[in-house]
Amino acid sequence: MVCLGNICRSPMAEGILSKKTKQNNLNWIVESAGTAEYHVGEAPHHLSQKVSLLHGIDISQQKCRQFKAADMNHFDHIYAMDQSNYANIRKICDTNWNEKKVDLILNELFPFENKEVPDPWYGGEEGFHEVFELLNKACDKIIEKFK
Ligand code: 4NP
Asked: Is the CB of 80 under 6 A from ligand 1?
């Protein structure tokens, strides 16, 4: 799960998919990262933590890390939250880029529409709820598709 800061969107996506993975007795490895390094080592945004916890998901122990080219080898599927994240992943991977592994996460919910998960960083709490709902539905689709 990849966004820009690994502070708002992708930590929620990691928390949601990890929970669904456990509920379905799947042994998938779910991680998140940001394409930028601004917040490396920090915990998720307090509103990402709050909204996740309202849904019974504790993401307080996550630590921000930056996406690296080797992630392309270690993971089967890489989900970008928006087009800019997608382009940044391609840039970071350079010769390691594998287009088959990478998609916008909302293409699981709205196939081929290339919709983006809005960045809640600049807004209020409502945006974090909206992001949670979108990611929750997209993660249901991911579980159905790959379990
Ligand atoms: P995220 O949101 O990519 O969903 O984690 C952002 C977090 C931090 C910044 C931008 C977006 N920032 O500019 O620091």
From this structure: no
Phi, psi of 85 (to 5 degrees): -60, -40
- The verdict on the CB of residue 121 being under 6 Å from ligand 1 is yes
119 is catalytic: yes
**For ligand 1, is residue 64 a contact (CB within 6 Å)?**
no
Q: What is the pTM of this model?
A: 0.98
Count CA within 13 A, CB hemisphere, residue 9. 30
Q: Which domains does the chain have, with CATH numbers?
A: 2-146 (3.40.50.2300)
pLDDT tens-place string over residues 73-126 = 999 999 999 999 999 999 999 999 999 999 999 999 999 999 999 999 999 999
Which distant-in-sequence residues (6+ apart) come within 8 Å of 22 by Cβ?
none
pLDDT tens track for 123-134: 999 999 999 999
Q: Is 90 a catalytic residue?
A: no
Query: Is 9 among the residues known to form the active site?
Result: yes
**Cα separation, 54 vs 32, whole angstroms:** 20
Choose, from 8, 64, 119, 139, the residue flagged as catalytic: 119
Task: Tell whether ligand 1 has an atom less than 6 A from the beta carbon of residue 117.
Answer: no
